[in-house]
Known about the structure:
Blueprint: E1 10-11, E2 21-31, E3 39-55, E4 58-72, H1 79-86, E5 91-96, E6 102-105, H2 108-122, H3 129-143, H4 145-152, E7 167-168, E8 176-182, E9 188-198, E10 202-209, E11 215-223, E12 226-235, E13 239-247
Antiparallel strand pairs: 1-7, 2-3, 2-13, 3-4, 4-5, 5-6, 8-9, 9-10, 10-11, 11-12, 12-13
Helix pairs in contact: 2-3, 3-4
Amino acid sequence: MISIVHGLKEYHxxxxxxxxxxxxxxxxxxxxxxxxxxxxxxxxxxxQIMPIGKAEYLDVYQIFTAKISIxxxxxxxxxxxxxxxxxAFDEIEAGVDYxxxxxxxxxxxxxxxxxxxxxxxxEKEYEGSFIQxxxxxxxxILKDETKLIEFLSSYKMFGLYFHGLFGNYLLWxxxxxxxxxxxxxxxxxxxxxxxxxxKDFVRYKINGRSNALYKYEGELVYKEYQLQEALIxxxxxxxxxxxxxxxxx
Length: 249
């Protein structure tokens, strides 16, 4: 007899080729480093996720960012620049394995070429060593498939959807434990514990431990093999960041 986890023996996405799934990805930053002047910024991406076929053992997805918007209780410096950098990753063709993890980027060369053109245009308006260094860092990520996959799989990009947590679940192997890097918190290392369960819906409850963070918790909620919503919240002494995803239809 197989011991299963809260009624959940296994779970996988069931992508329908030709379907189009609309999601909103949002990063909400609450900066309370200055107690009398708390700042909140929200970076929102409206994204289309489209399964388009198979490549050997991989499901192939197109990930298209239709719109980027920024909201804040203060003026946002260089909003145009931030959006243009975001659009450098606006059309991804990714190979995804059975765990839901991105393992291939099929249009890496095209992304790199487009960024070269975009960065040359931006350099006409933005100058300085910091800008040059940042543009070079983006170019390096786009040329290196391993770094590109790592970046796209982060929670601030598409890691709440393509997370690599699907599979078979046995009681003696729970919880799922893995290491993560909190990039927005000085690259602090976190040990995640993920508990899958099935009730009226499928939920992955996530908790994290780190010496650098006061709070690290969240959940992924699925219904009929489709991600409905997801949220991960991290907090230290100076800021709180929420990474959120919502299914729009």
